[in-house]
Design a protein that fits this description.
This protein starts with a helix and ends with a helix. Helix 2 packs antiparallel against helix 3. About 0% of the residues are buried. By secondary structure, it is mostly helical. The protein has one domain.
Length: about 60
């Protein structure tokens, strides 16, 4: 997949998701693009997004302390 095709696919997908869900962070969008470029399996993408979300929760909890 070319970078242009990846950007178009992710952009349209993200805009559709934003209507239904909270806005995705730029970090999440970049992770999706990077995963597509490297032809990773979807399970790996889901795992990476999950781990990234866990890290954000930890950072938020630390800021509150």
């Amino acid at each position: 997949m070319s970078d242009e095709a990846i950007n178009k696919a992710v952009s349209s997908s993200v805009s559709n998701n934003q209507i239904e869900n909270d806005k995705m962070t730029e970090q999440e969008i970049n992770l999706i693009k990077e995963s597509l470029k490297k032809d990773r399996k979807i399970e790996s993408l889901i795992y990476n997004v999950y781990k990234m979300h866990e890290e954000e929760i930890k950072k938020t909890k630390q800021k509150k302390k």
